[in-house]
Design goal:
The protein is of the alpha/beta class and 547 residues long. The protein contains 22 helices and 17 strands.
Amino acid sequence: MQATFAATLFDEWARAGLRDVVMCPGSRSTPLVIACSSRDDLTVHVRLDERSAGFFALGRALAGGRPVAVVVTSGTAAAELHAVVAEADLAGVSLIVVTADRPPELRGVGAPQTIIQRDLFGSMVRRFEEPGVARWEASGTWRALASRLWWAAKGGAASGPPGPVHLNAAFVEPLVATARPVAPGRTHNDPWRRVTPAPAVHAVLDVDGARVLAVVGHGVARDVVDRCWALDWVPVGDATTPATLPYVDALLRGDGFAERARPTLVVRLGGLAASKVLQARLAEWGVRTVALSGAGEVADPDALVSDVVAGLPDVGDAALRGDARYVQWWREASTSVEQWASERIDVGDLSEPAVARVVVAASTRHDVALVVGSSMPVRDVEWWAPARHAATYANRGVNGIDGVVSTMLGVGAGQRVIGLVGDLTALHDVSALVDGVGDTDSRAVLVVVDNRGGGIFSFLAPARELAPERFERLFATPRGHDLVAVARAFGHEGQRVSTAHELRAAIDEGLDRVGLSVIVVDVPSREENVALHDALVGEVAALGDWR
């Protein structure tokens, strides 16, 4: 009975479009593991650590654009998924989290591996289901249960934004059994799908040749950015949004440029950019801001949005066309920074901004997905690198450093991928190295910027206000581990580089080699990095007469 229940779940999910299941070994989850691994239409990824497995599943969902199931046993195994559920919630990533559990009679009596798993993830999940131990008389509800979870994870007009869902499934011993033939279900379709006409976007926007700045944040696809360009809007965005105008943060740090760059209309799509400078300028300008929700939920923590419109801009609507001269002015400013950066950043010692530029260029040259870590890597990509053209991902829901290496491995399962992280991010997710690329033929390159600690903290108040020894111990937290030796200890390729030429060559070699290659990059000290960023900003401000 339990075996048939589990088989029915995965049959319904597979019919809906499930292709990847990430699982961790465990006893209580045995019926689920047997059910998913018995299907030829599902790819099962086996990972040892549940936290790492969750972020691996997140990466698969990001790369595939469809829900991914992650299956774990009971107890702390379920609790280990809390961080990835938080990320998937805020990033709008579809995950089906399936936790096995003890039956009710074993809860609260000292049974091993038993915690309270009901509503374990609280309001972070789009839907929670706890059907109890499978019963034959309830078998007619099993497909509907699976369907509710699938569509809640996938998201839609009536079911809300995509995100994680949680099924807590209790099983009793014996756990190994043969499933009965799974009854064919109905034709699978979205029970909540509704088609409602959206109002004309131009009726609210009223562009009519305005100077339009389109803030295209996290989660917005390339075709939406292309629409903005086609309408003579200036699309600026997050490190993960492709084909947006680069170098916006550096340009807007200059008061003269910001004064001249003031738009007459701001259009918001998707999440936030990492740039606090951009967000501060938007608040300072105080111009009318309209959110278009057709590309996903719009982030607005500063309450700048005055109108929200369902839909996306129509490139054929002449009423939405902006000021082409404003676009050209921004393009020329960005081009001047690119020319300057190629002469200033790309020569000499390999700095952190230079590493970001080399990695982004390699991603574009090879048309390989890029996964960027939080803190300094995502900022250096957004601030100092050219526009991204290959798919670029980052855990920008919660913006944490947890699980980034696992996310990269999930994105790259079965294909090529490049990751860019700091040394602490790599150490924080060192358990990802246990399984590496798993049994896939991935070619994964992890570039680790070794600035010997948390580089972002050197830009923040504690670095200025605390004694150096105290700051290093409490915030920078340098660790003396040799990351090349760590990578090799887990059986992966590992090397250390110190020049742009060496870095480019190592990336190229890693993308030609099956497996995980870890490239550790020596860069100047964190103090030198702060001074370099200050100098670069000053030089950008002096590039032109922005007034």
